[in-house]
Amino acid sequence: MNTKYWVSGLMFLGLKTILTAQSFTLDNVRQNEKIYTVVIDAGHGGHDTGTIDKNGRYEKDINLFVAKYVKLYLNKYAPDIKVILTRDTDVFLPLKRRPLYAKISDADLFISLHCNHNPNSIAQGAEIYLQKTNMNNAKFNLRSAAKFGLILDRNLKQKLNYKSRGILRSNLQVLRESISYVPSVLVEMGFFSNQEESSYLNSKKGIKGVSLTVSKSIMDYFGI
Q: So where are the chain's domains?
């Protein structure tokens, strides 16, 4: 046998084997890529305005603006995260319907966005709520929700210089009806009763800042 052709044949077979192995590996990676689903719930809507600041601005509008910007940013920077909004217009949704979006879509995370109010106009900062429960079937989701809450709390402090009011536990309907099947948190993004904080939340800078921070926290949570 001609040695030249024998060596060439071996080289061809070796190259074919390498290419086949690489193709198999890439195919496996594509098949194993995880697509995460996040449900963003813009609190209130329609006739339910939520809290109102001294200038007559509605909480429901800020909640919706932030939700839509989070979807925009995640679509741009993390296309492997699918974002579902419970509402994308100014409509009223009953509380019991909101968690169903997470259940139907088999979501990996549920976030309900709100703005806060306090009779004390000096009160400021972000509050992150977890459901107060001891149900065994909620323990894993509670731990995961707490993980996300800590990430968001840290990013709000570091990125926006927000005051943290802590990770709190409460019995809230949207969390109570979702925590058994999805990690869920309710975020109070700031106080409408605080004039400075309300002005920030109602500004383009504030809406984009909070939206980017929530988006970054979701990406951090999923390790993206």
A: 1-33, 34-222
Please report which residue ranges of the chain form alpha helices under DSSP H. Answer: 3-32, 59-77, 100-105, 139-160, 173-176, 195-201, 204-222
CATH of domain 34-222: 3.40.630.40
- With CA atoms as reference, report the closest residue to 167 among 181, 197, 188, 139: 188
Tens digit of pLDDT per residue, the chain (224 long)? 444 433 344 333 343 443 344 443 434 444 446 899 999 999 999 999 999 999 999 999 999 999 999 999 999 999 999 999 999 999 999 999 999 999 999 999 999 999 999 999 999 999 999 999 999 999 999 999 999 999 999 999 999 999 999 999 999 999 999 999 999 999 999 999 999 999 999 999 999 999 999 999 999 999 99
Helix (H, G, I), strand (E, B) or coil at 44: coil
Q: Is residue 178 packed enough to be buried (19+ CB in 10 Å), middle (13-18) or exposed (0-12)?
A: buried
Structure token pair of residue 45: 């809507």
> pTM of the entire structure?
0.86
- Secondary structure of 159-218 in HEC code, one letter for each residue: HHCCCEEEEEEECCHHHHCCCCCCCEEEEEEEECCCHHHHHHHCCHHHHHHHHHHHHHHH
